[in-house]
Amino acid sequence: MTVQTFIPSAVKAASENTVTQPMHTADVSIKKLYIETQGCQMNEYDSHRMADLLGDSHGYVLTDNPNEADILLMNTCSIREKAQEKVFSGLGRWRKLKEQNPDLVIGVGGCVASQEGDNIQKRAPYVDMVFGPQTLHRLPQMLDQHQAQVEKPKKEKIKLVDISFPDIEKFDFLPEPRVEGFKAFVSIMEGCSKYCSFCVVPYTRGEEVSRPLDDVLAEIAGLAEKGVREISLLGQNVNGYRGETFDGEICTFPELLRLVAEIPGIGRLRYTTSHPLEFSDDLIQCYRDLPQMVSHLHLPVQSGSNDVLQAMKRNHTIDVYIDKIAKLRKVRPDMHLSSDFIIGFPGETDANFAETLQFIKDLDFDHSYSFIYSKRPGTPASDLPDDTPEQVKKDRLAQVQQVIKQSSIDKTDAMLGKIERVLIEKVSDKDPNVLIGTADNTRLVTFIGDAAWIGRFAEIEITEIKTLNLVYGELLNLEPDVA
Ligand code: SAH
Ligand code: F3S
């Protein structure tokens, strides 16, 4: 088979700095909003929310051209690398646009905003608004405040910086999420309280806060009515979900999954991301009981060495992870497992690395992400001595990526002759008789069919492997619409 690089949408979005759902319009009187999104699916989700908010409050529509925008928003990420520098070089480009158009409004949100606060305006005084992941719902008011003080002399202007953590308020003020075809992302919790020693998330997004149960269920029921068939539950640690019920009780993540699975119309359930520590037996039972749950799990482990896991403060051993996966594969033998790995963590020895490599082979991971450790200011690991040469880290990363890639190719090849449950999503651009859908394991599946079937699930027998992420098949059974 030919190998194509697999780029999941979240990663693609990060690398291409995508704009969220642009709309094209020739009408110059319509105010236009451009959003640059860096980073994870949570940021993608937040960018959609920003667009919805400013659309509802001020009538802004999205554009994919920063040159024609009235507002430029940068939704930043600080998980790795010199994120701050990336933000400031991007803002440098926007400064030129503001010189040509002094009315242009520039806002910076996301995790770099949360970390840097007023420093952003100290380094880039042409930035008008700074907001964190927890205050983006206040954007319309911030914009009003900005507009109210545009004419004021500089010394009378107040700085518009709000990077506070107003608890759950963010969830209360938001409009319905946007439906993207038959799939939708629903945020169920925010932040993280795990404090892994390398990670900025608990500092930039705050501690874990769960959305109330009824809000989540009502949102999903509304989406199902609009035709959504696949829900991805989002959060940094979804299995840490503890949502309040209407009578003050607490609903856990497995309980939430069971309730969502009962909503008419929801034919498929995914979630990202979860933590091995809270990957409970109850959650494993959901895989036994709920056919809507996909046979695909992304469960970050970070390293295959107990020494490294301990230094990372992941609070579990490799054996704990292996046992949980063994239990899961008992109830779902066809489970596709993917993970995140950090390579070159401070103190990682050749022997530690060899354990990680062996672990990846043993657990037979599908498409996984691997990154060289990046020192993050303010995290406990940033004080650890790190004497592994950069070239050694790069060599280790290359080895890990080679093993993961080969394993992903093997997984696709193994689909030949198997029957996959596919959500039919669209007609091929190239041939109106060919339909395209996604399998549980995220591979695209094409087959001959009728456009009227779009939005339904089908059993497809895989007859040809085309690329790492694309297979051909034949229809065996078309499920009745789940609504
Ligand atoms: N909630 C997830 C992780 C979210 S961050 C969990 O349970 O692990 C997404 C991924 O970025 C992490 O899984 C980790 O592999 C990577 N990452 C986070 N901080 C990093 C750092 N300082 N250097 C390199 N990679 C990092
Ligand atoms: Fe980060 Fe660890 Fe939480 S990786 S998001 S602190 S689980």
From TrEMBL:
Keywords: 4Fe-4S, Cytoplasm, Iron, Iron-sulfur, Metal-binding, S-adenosyl-L-methionine, Transferase, tRNA processing. It is an enzyme of class 2 (transferase). It holds the Pfam family TRAM. [4Fe-4S] cluster 2 binds at C192, C196, C199. GO terms for cellular component: cytosol. It comes from the Bacteria. It catalyses: 2-thio-N(6)-dimethylallyladenosine(37) in tRNA + S-adenosyl-L-methionine = 2-methylsulfanyl-N(6)-dimethylallyladenosine(37) in tRNA + S-adenosyl-L-homocysteine + H(+); N(6)-dimethylallyladenosine(37) in tRNA + (sulfur carrier)-SH + AH2 + 2 S-adenosyl-L-methionine = 2-methylsulfanyl-N(6)-dimethylallyladenosine(37) in tRNA + (sulfur carrier)-H + 5'-deoxyadenosine + L-methionine + A + S-adenosyl-L-homocysteine + 2 H(+); N(6)-dimethylallyladenosine(37) in tRNA + (sulfur carrier)-SH + AH2 + S-adenosyl-L-methionine = 2-thio-N(6)-dimethylallyladenosine(37) in tRNA + (sulfur carrier)-H + 5'-deoxyadenosine + L-methionine + A + H(+). PROSITE patterns: MTTASE_N, MTTASE_RADICAL, RADICAL_SAM, TRAM. Its EC number is 2.8.4.3. [4Fe-4S] cluster 1 binds at C40, C77, C111. Binds 2 [4Fe-4S] clusters. One cluster is coordinated with 3 cysteines and an exchangeable S-adenosyl-L-methionine. Residues 31-148 form the MTTase N-terminal domain. It is found in: Cytoplasm. Its main location: cytoplasm. Gene3D superfamilies: Methylthiotransferase, N-terminal domain, tm_1862 like domain. Residues 413-477 form the TRAM domain. The keyword Metal-binding applies. Its cofactor is [4Fe-4S] cluster. Residues 178-410 form the Radical SAM core domain. GO terms for molecular function: 4 iron, 4 sulfur cluster binding; metal ion binding; tRNA-2-methylthio-N(6)-dimethylallyladenosine(37) synthase activity. Catalyzes the methylthiolation of N6-(dimethylallyl)adenosine (i(6)A), leading to the formation of 2-methylthio-N6-(dimethylallyl)adenosine (ms(2)i(6)A) at position 37 in tRNAs that read codons beginning with uridine. Monomer. Belongs to the methylthiotransferase family. MiaB subfamily. This is tRNA-2-methylthio-N(6)-dimethylallyladenosine synthase. It comes from Acinetobacter parvus NIPH 1103. The lineage of its organism: Bacteria, Pseudomonadati, Pseudomonadota, Gammaproteobacteria, Moraxellales.
